[in-house]
Amino acid sequence: MTIPPKLKPVLFGLIAFLIFTTLSLVLKLVTNRHSSEDIYFGVLSNKDLLIGLGIAVLLTFNNQRQKTLK
Q: Bridge-partner residues for 44, per DSSP?
């Protein structure tokens, strides 16, 4: 089974976002740093999710740019 070329960047971005969210969740649980604005899973805030989205977009853009340079 092959993945369509247009779906690969979406999957790459989704995986990058999930990795960032998982690391953020683990770090907050280990360090016991919970703020009052944590609304997702009782640990993640809107700011965390926006940062994760930004990182996922930047990583996906950089990955696609590197593929075109090869």
A: 40
pLDDT in tens, 28-65: 888 887 666 667 767 778 888 899 999 999 999 999 99
Nearest Cα residue to 11 out of 59, 44, 47? 59
- Residues in the chain, how many? 70
Nearest residue to 11 via CA among 67, 66, 69, 63:
63
- Cβ atoms of 60 and 16 closer than 8 Å: yes
Q: Rounded to an integer, what distance in angstroms lies between the CA atom of residue 7 and that of residue 35?
A: 36
